[in-house]
Amino acid sequence: MNYVEKVLAKLKKQNPGEPEFHQAATEILTSLEVVMEKHPEYEKAGLLERFVEPERVIMFRVPWVDDKGKVQVNKGYRVQFNSAIGPYKGGLRFHPSVNLSIIKFLGLEQILKNSLTGLPIGGGKGGSNFDPKGKSDREIMAFCQSFMTELQRHIGQDTDVPAGDIGVGGREIGFLFGQYKKIRDEHVGVLTGRGLTYGGSLARTEATGYGLVYMTAEAMKMRGDSFEGKTVVISGSGNVAIYACQKAQSLGAKVVAMYDSNGYIYDPNGIQLDVVRDIKEVKRGRIKEYAERVAGATYTEGCKGIWAIPCDVALPCATQNEIDEESAKLLVANGVKYVAEGANMPSTLKAIETFQSAGIVFLPAKAANAGGVATSALEMAQSSQRLFWTFEEVDAKLNQIMVNIYHNIDNAAKKYGMDGNYVAGANIAGFEKVAEAMMAQGVV
Ligand code: NDP
Predict the structure, then answer these.
(1) 3-state helix, strand, coil in the chain (%, to 5)
(2) Is 125 one of the catalytic residues?
(3) Does domain 54-188 have CATH number 3.20.20.370?
(4) One CATH from 3.30.360.10, 3.40.50.720, 3.60.21.10, 3.40.50.300 for 207-368
């Protein structure tokens, strides 16, 4: 067994019942074998063992009272994974599927993603198995206040700066920030994705979706190609999906399908994004309604069928493992040319292999969706300066960061003889900086 295999075997043994964490660690560590060969000193320093072990895991009870006066109890998590290059940074996810395995996989990915942005941010992630769906605004507030009552003692603008993720948008960040401020009595940049009236950055809302499209556009440009006239399928209809759709459409693409967790819509004339936004953002309704409102569009119950729709570009923007091997094969058979991940780990390991062996341009999440956290870091910079930049300034910086990440992962893949393998490129480029910082800081 080589060093990577030993670390992976130990990780699986010591962290049983955490399949998503095993999956992410396997994908990352396997592509770092070449780095370990070049740096034998890392094994002696136990670098990988330290890299896969969170610096701190916080788990807590979140009690709150529902509208019927009944006390509900959820689980709260914050995994402070790695602070070698900056304060922990990463979103909070509120979804019934949340457990320690999911938060740890997201946290591990986040370390490398944050490193790739080129900005000084470490990796962390958190959340709860709370389901915001169907809850009143008062119930959401009660939950967020209880969650922050515990979390506030562990975070701070120079320690750990959470943001949104699935189920945590502007409304939730507002309630969380309000409670932090009340308890700690400080109006600081302790959360990102804040509203524009209380410290938020312009373009943060759009950043992940826009960034995804900026990177894909750069990959296309390098091949003498563009979004113009391309058929695009996007999964999800939340924050990332909506702004990916908006930017792709503005570059001349036709987005023909989107979904929510119940089913997908297909509109051969091109999705009308204002209708999707009205349903999902304003009414917090179901995407099914789109087919009732737009002539020529259809709705199909269940999500998987979306990948059978022929397209040039697939942008999975909903959740982990939404593209399995079978779906990947269908996409390839139907002529997909680019797959760029807006969601975190939306492709299974087998799906990634399918794309790569078919020669598809595959841009992995930790690079392709890094625009969100990069803009969060720009929000932190603005908070520290007590100054705000215009939308155009932030958007231009975001675009440049995404272009830089693309070339960094492309170069890293080439440097290790794996031209076009952006999974390896992203893992290696992200890891190199973290490894150097960890080595410099001694055994901590
Ligand atoms: P949102 O909560 O805004 O939207 C999530 C979307 O995905 C919704 O349409 C939701 O459907 C759908 N969805 C969630 N779970 C499932 C599921 N199990 N099956 C099918 N559909 C599902 O989240 P975001 O857009 O913020 O996040 C989407 C992805 O992007 C996540 O993987 C997140 O980690 C990642 N990401 C987000 C960033 C950000 O800045 N927001 C930054 C980087 C990555 P429904 O409406 O029915 O719930």
Answers:
(1) 50, 15, 35
(2) yes
(3) no
(4) 3.40.50.720
